[in-house]
Structure formats: structure tokens, C-alpha cells
Amino acid sequence: MEKISVVVPCYNEEKSIPLFYSEIDKISKKMKKLNFEFLFINDGSSDKTLDVCKELAKKDKRVKYISFSRNFGKEAAMYAGMEHSIGDYVTIMDVDLQDPPELLPKMYNCIKEKGYDCVATRRVTRKGEPPIRSFLARRFYKLINKMSDIEMVDGARDYRLMTRQVVDSILSMKEYNRYSKGLFSFVGYKTKWLEYENRERAIGETKYNIWKLFMYAFEGIIAFSTTPLWIAAIVGIIFCLISFIAIIFIIIKTLCYGDPVGGWPSMVCIIFMVSGIQLFCIGIIGAYLSKTYLETKNRPIYIIKEKN
Ligand code: UDP
Ligand code: MG
């Protein structure tokens, strides 16, 4: 019998896990042709998430848990889950039921009968989300798709069903700064997109505030585009040209009218602006350098404290 692994990253989700388990258990009973394995990844939660996982594991042999030594982030949790999964198919689901488990049979059919390697999901609405978050997310997808050769689908979730081959391809990318939406796209394969209306979180609160999302967006751009580096270079060239024209203008003006000390305030403004732009460009280079620095350290993506 074929096996399917359900990877579930959990960070302070003691209340969501029982709800999630009862839903996924129903689905597993419907999909009789498959053996299920549930991998709960406790991403350094400070609540009773781990105890809840242990309880479940006692009740149900299909439940496995992996507990990190601290909070490593959802990306690390997904990686750990995929690395420990043994299924022929692997799916990643949020524990808050925002990724509808009832889509799973349809996803499985697409792979089994229509010959897809991977079935991904995207939400077509963002109902129930703070408007500022939706607005910034839309801008981000416009921006990154302009900047990167890799296609990032607006509204794409990490919720997807993959064959073992796709999972192995993703696992072969061992980079420390992980941006999975890009990595999924990077590996290619025949992918089917399923669309659904946004769901609100079943219980609990989002773990991503605006600042964390901003850093996540930044991570995506740095990981999948070198356009900012080019922008820095182009801004530099434009400013060289402007200053060249200004120098010629000033020389001619001084020769014609003679004006030795005029223009002091404008000089100060120019110095401020140009040094600002220089620092900005150094900052861009610094951002890439810092990511490269972290990569070369070869630190583990996650550290496990205990598992079953
Ligand atoms: N999550 C995690 N580590 C983190 C943050 C989140 O494992 O540092 C998990 C979280 O428990 C949930 C999923 O990632 O299962 C998505 O998080 P959340 O629902 O808070 O994000 P949102 O849906 O609001 O984007
Ligand atoms: Mg959520």
C-alpha cells in the first residue's frame, strides 16, 4: 500500500492541533487506498504543543513528532518534516485549518490519474485578512515577479502534495536561507494549481506580524533575485552622469559670470543626498553579503531536541 506523509509545522498551537487532527483523521478514513503518516513539527513552542503531540502519538501510531531545541521558523520546520517523511507522497499543511484538508483527495487524484508530479494550492481571495496585509502582499508579488526569473504565484500557499521525486529535489537544496515558495517553483515539474477561497484561522492567532512578513518578503527577494545589486550599479552610473553635466555647467557659469562662494546650501544638500544613496547601495550589497556569510557557515537548518 502506498504511503502519504502529512507534514504539519506547529508553533504555539496547543489549541489547533486537536481540531486539525480530527479533520485530517476524517480525511484519512476516506482515502482508504493510502497509509497515512502525520509528522507534527514542534518549532520550539512555549505552550503545551509538545505534550499535545505526545498524547496524540500515544493514541495513534501514525502520529510522529519532532521537537526543535528552539524556534527555527516555519521554513526549517517544513524542511525537517520533509527530511523525516517516508511517504511516497508528501503534503505540507498548516495546523490552523487554513489549508483545507478536504482538498487532499482531489489533489491525490490529480497526481494519480492525471499524471501531475505536484499539486499546489492558491487562495483567490484574501477575505478576513487585514487590508494592509493584503495590499502589501499584492505589491510584493508584483515586485518579486518583475525582479526574479522564477515565477511566484500570488496567493500561493505552502500547502501542496508532492511525489517523492519532487520532495527529494527540494531536499537536495540545502541552503540555510530558505524561501520555499521560490524553491518549489525552482524545481519545476508538472504542477497543477488548485484554487480556493481564503479560510480564516480556526483558532489562535497568526504567528506572522507585519514586521516578520516584511523580513520574509526581503528574504524572498534576496534569495531569488540579484536585481537590487543592478539597481545599485545603475543608480551609481546615473549620478555620475548628473555630476558630470553639473561640473561642466558650473565651469562655464564661473567662467562667464565669476561666482566664487555662491551655492553653499545646494552643495550641502547634494553631499547629503549622494552620501545617502551611497550608503543605501552599500546596504544592498551588505544584505547579499550577510546572506552569503550565513550560507558559508554551514549551520544546520534546525536542531532536534526529541522525537519519536
Ligand atoms: N509556524 C511555525 N513556526 C513559526 C511560525 C509559524 O511552525 O515560527 C507554523 C504555524 O504553527 C502554522 C503555520 O506555520 O501551522 C502558519 O502560521 P500562521 O497560521 O501563523 O501564518 P499565517 O497563516 O497567518 O500566514
Ligand atoms: Mg495561518
Could you tell me how far the N terminus lies from the C terminus, measured between alpha carbons in angstroms? Answer: 23 Å
Structural class: alpha/beta
CATH topology descriptor of the largest domain: Spore Coat Polysaccharide Biosynthesis Protein SpsA, Chain A
Beta strand count: 8
Question: What is the helix content?
Answer: 40-55%
- Mean of pLDDT: 89
Percent of residues in β-strands = 15-25%
How many distinct folded domains?
A: 2
Instruction: Spell out which ligands are present.
Output: uridine-5'-diphosphate, magnesium ion
H/E topology pattern: EHEHEHEHEHEHHEHHHE
The CATH homologous superfamily of the largest domain is termed Spore Coat Polysaccharide Biosynthesis Protein SpsA, Chain A
What Rg, in angstroms, do the CA atoms define? 25 Å
Strand order of the largest sheet: 7-5-6-4-1-2-3-8
